[in-house]
Amino acid sequence: MTKIVKGGNLPVPGQVWRIAVVRRAAGDGAPEVDASALLLDATGRVRGDGDLVFYNQLTHPSGAVRHIGQVRDEQDRVADWLEVDTALVEPAVHRIVISASTDAGTFGQVPGLHIRTISAATGEQLALYEVDDASTETAFVLGEFYRRDGAWKFRAVGQGWDSGLVGLAEDFGVEGRDPDPAETAPDDGPAAPVGAPPEAIPEELLAKVREAEAAALEPVTGQVSERTGRPASDLGGFGGDFPEFVRSGKGGKTLTVDVPIPAGYVVVDSTRRGDGYFSVHSLDAHGQKDVLLANTTLEDFEGRSVLRHSGGSPLRLRVGAADREWTIAVRPVSVVKELGRGAKGRGADVLLHTGPAGRLTSTLHTFGHEYFLVKGHAPDGGDRLLANAASRRPKDTRELPAGPLLVHVRSADGDWTLEVRPPKERGSGRFWRRTAR
After folding, report:
1. Which H or E run includes 169?
2. How confident is the model at residue 200 (pLDDT cuts 50, 70, 90)?
3. CB 260 within 8 A of CB 292
4. Is 379:404 a contact under the CB 8 Å cutoff?
5. Coil, strand, or helix at residue 97?
6. What does the alpha-carbon distance between residue 412 and residue 396 come to, in Å, rounded to a whole number?
7. Residue among 407, 408, 409 nearest 370 (CA)
8. For residues 359 and 420, is the Cβ–Cβ distance under 8 A?
9. C-alpha 133: how far from its chain's center?
10. What is the pLDDT of residues 380-408, one digit of tens each?
11. What does the mean pLDDT of the chain come to?
């Protein structure tokens, strides 16, 4: 058996594997925990609700993934067991996510949470991953099987959600709609447990076996943001057109934008070559720093920000860039592209949402602890917080009002994705109501 750390991965031979989601049994403040699996396509989403294997759907239609039961041992531990047969996984499935959830507490209250992968044929234990950083999460992606160069690998993930199984599953595309009465099949009860209870948990962690590998971006359908282009729609409500202002320099400098800018929003594009800290501020009437437009340590930074200008005195900007070369461009908001169904990018950016109300899922892909902030700006100057998260891999889902709205990715030191989905339907919830244990 090999202990792996978050992000660590190992090759998986083509055979049947059993996965145990192990923790202390419920009681004395420890909540009940449920294990589940999601089968994802190349876009990182399920193809339908059937791709979720959980307490109400114990077997995938392909037979590749099954929830095979629960066992307890004399040490007051409990394990939910799942089985993955890689030979039966359909070609369209690229990842199988193993998750855990609770609806009566948080994972900070769950002692001894870990995941084991074990060969069904030989009993060989491939990997053990222990979760040691849980706090307020109510759902966790513990690990995943994924295809790489025609072979299967297993990776320890350790990413948490604060929205339980429903929120986690919906983030991967599960709609959870109730079936028509004629389609509802009788409940045959849970499958019989298979396999032996897990071995005792080692008291000491082994040294890290490998560095965490970089997280792969999950492709998002829809338009990809671009820096410039023709107007996506009539943006008269946000501000009028004006000649663009472009200046280049090196190190710290104060700029006065010497083109006439009407009242309304303007776009500020910033480019800095090399590394180190880089910042851009607007200045108020007294020459003091006002609005922060760029704030990053990313190497070879390219970012876009938005600023509401009064239209009175000339716009002034302060650039801080040590001894690095930079270019600043002030442009009308007509250069922004539409958000559409989604976008991906790196660093600060601005997109235009013109569609109906929905939900926006924002994800910053990083293995370091980072802050991620996305705001929405209405034509009348009103602001809306669309994402506000700080963690090892920040992710947030919030209501997105109907357009027009400027979607401003502000704090994002890394690669990010935005995805727009329809508003959450308020149904009976029978899909999620527990019918089997």
Report:
1. helix 164-171
2. very low
3. no
4. yes
5. strand
6. 13
7. 409
8. yes
9. 18
10. 888 889 988 877 678 888 889 998 999 99
11. 80
